[in-house]
Amino acid sequence: LPVVILAAHTLLMPAPYELKHIANKGLRLAYGHWPGDGPTVLCLHGLTANHRSFHYLATALQAAGYNVLAM
Questions:
Q1: Residue from 17, 9, 51 nearest 34 by CA
Q2: Per-residue pLDDT reduced to its tens digit, 58-71
Q3: Residue 21, Cβ neighbours under 10 Å: how many?
């Protein structure tokens, strides 16, 4: 898997994303989707965070061609 490296001086504005939902057996989960044509990367947050924690990372991955899902 290629590694995406951003220089410290790189200004990367967050890309717009789609907020989507999935439901199964009474559980409804929200996730952010940054569409791309490449492989899918799934970003999972820890306690007290949400999909927006990955906004800058997802933007960089999307710019590199990845399809990004963050929950």
A1: 17
A2: 988 998 999 999 98
A3: 8
